[in-house]
Design a protein that fits this description.
The protein has 149 residues and is an alpha+beta fold. It has one domain. The chain has six helices and six strands; from the N terminus they run αββββαββαααα. The strands form two sheets. The chain has a four-stranded antiparallel sheet. A hairpin with a 5-residue loop joins strand 5 and strand 6. The longest helix has 19 residues.
Length: 149
Amino acid sequence: MMDVSATHEGRQILDIVECLGKTEWRKGSTSTYVVKTHAGLSLRSQIEYPPSVCFRFVKEDVAVVAELIRCVDVYQGHLKWAMIGEGREDGRHSWVIAPQRLFDVEEQANRDDETAKQFLAKNDPGFGKQAYEDMAGLTAHMKSYFGMG
């Protein structure tokens, strides 16, 4: 049987985050995913949708968060990346690391009743592939920044 497995580009960044503080929730993008069809398992691509990595710490350490934001901010790759938090009622945040452009088009996308990822997939389908390629550089930068090899 053919080995069919999805790529999990976001997982490496989540593993770095997990080393800095225990997460209670985490989710990373993948450029491909496995689908079960009548013919068995097959891979589907969703590379036109730019990647993001989302997480929430069990106990949020302000110093760790500040360092993570700075780490992402100083990365000099092909794209500008950002880490932005969304406040919750309990005072903690859900954090998102994604290409800055994803945050920039959010308002415009919402006006069109779309997510930022849908908007970019439709209006600039090559951007997702660029972002996935640059994500490898961001991952290497984060490992180096935090002295993880």
